[in-house]
Amino acid sequence: MCIRRCFLQGILGVTSYNIRISSTQSYVPDNRKGRFNGTFLMLTTIGSLLGQLLAGLLTEIMPIRGVLSLFMGISGASAIIIMGRGRNEVKPIYNKRQ
Question: How far apart, in whole angstroms, are the C-alpha atoms of residue 75 and residue 42?
Answer without folding.
Answer: 19
